[in-house]
Amino acid sequence: xxxxxxxxxxxxxxxxxxxxxxxxxxxxxxxxxxxxxxxxxxxxxxxxxxxxxxxxxxxxxxxxxxxxxxxxxxxxxxxxxxxxxxxxxxxxxxxxxxxxxxxxxxxxxxxxxxxxxxxxxxxxxxxxxxxxxxxxxxxxxxxxxxxxxxxxxxxxxxxxxxxxxxxxxxxxxxxxxxxxxxxxxxxxxxxxxxxxxxxxxxxxxxxxxxxxxxxxxxxxxxxxxxxxxxxxxxxxxxxxxxxxxxxxxxxxxxxxxxxxxxxxxxxxxxxxxxxxxxxxxxxxxxxxxxxxxxxxxxxxxxxxxxxxxxxxxxxxxxxxxxxxxxxxxxxxxxxxxxxxxxxxxxxxxxxxxxxxxxxxxxxxxxxxxxxxxxxxxxxxxxxxxxxxxxxxxxxxxxxxxxxxxxxxxxxxxxxxxxxxxxxxxxxxxxxxxxxxxxxxxxxxxxxx
Length: 448
Fold this sequence. Notes:
Elements: H1 26-32, E1 38-51, E2 60-73, E3 78-92, E4 99-106, E5 109-114, E6 118-125, E7 143-144, E8 158-159, E9 161-170, E10 173-180, E11 198-199, E12 204-205, H2 215-220, E13 222-225, E14 232-239, E15 244-254, E16 259-262, H3 264-270, E17 281-285, E18 288-300, E19 303-318, E20 325-339, E21 347-358, E22 368-380, E23 385-394, E24 399-411, E25 414-425, H4 430-433, E26 439-447
Parallel strand pairs: 13-17
Antiparallel strand pairs: 1-2, 1-26, 2-3, 3-4, 3-5, 5-6, 6-9, 7-8, 9-10, 10-14, 11-12, 14-15, 15-18, 16-17, 18-19, 19-20, 20-21, 21-22, 22-23, 23-24, 24-25, 25-26
């Protein structure tokens, strides 16, 4: 039985208690002092992929990813975050060159100061503006991750940017100011990857129809990517509550996804006005554009309704007559609903999207496109399993992406899953460009 000494009897010796005059050993002090750092593996993924199309140029495409973070609170209202990520890609078999690549990249690394109703963040950050899933029209300042096309969910298809961000919050209103001092283009896969937007095997460019005359030049072309300069900036004003959440945005941004321009010597050779160059060149362009847009979310019965739209001043296109690059105005919009019809566990997300180019006569790109995208998800067997389907389908032309998946989720935060990525469509669509990359996958993912 442990005895307690009276407060006045300071010289009473209590058996089983340490001598108050004897200093504690350093090991005890270290054990009692919790670390100020919060360190963890934030997310991880390991996926084995077997390509299944008859005309595939590789047999397998495996992928692994891990994201690490460490953070702590500093003196006063300061906060520090450090982060890194590793991505591994393994591809082999078939006619394509094998890919064995391990890439290290920075994740979120920033210093933040929190005021009473504002905060300032300086460093590399992942900032996604917009409200809808998959293709938010106002998300123009983030950097796309195209290393696996659209196989991952949208949040995993964005990389961090060097940025300065200032946010104000007052009585339901929020002002978000963002500046990117350095431009970071979209993250692309290895040059020999089956997911690269320049297909050397077939002589194709993503987003353009097949051209037998241009194919030999694309096979031999080198790629020149100019990434100098800043990435632009923008402002987002938002309001939450009062029956609806809405936001307005104004941005001066650069397209992170490259648009490829054929060099002048190659264009002249294709037009019969000169000899072909010794080494054709494709210039990866990232033109600047003004973005004016907004988004809205509200409740309609048991459904959440979301809408988002953006006007862009400069969308790059390719002229059909001479392959010159020019820019035209564009308008993108999305209208969607999310709810749990019939069963409280069955989640349904449906979105209709439209993309329009203004004054784009005589270009190789589609002047307008309409899509139906969505996700159906249902846990079952006492929430030990989950069935899910992600999909996108062209409404005005054949362009299909389908991703059914069955996952065991009974061992949180780990998920073990099996799925299929099915792509198909016209030659000038994303589904048509990647149709030979239909793939069966088996994998693990975790979020900690």
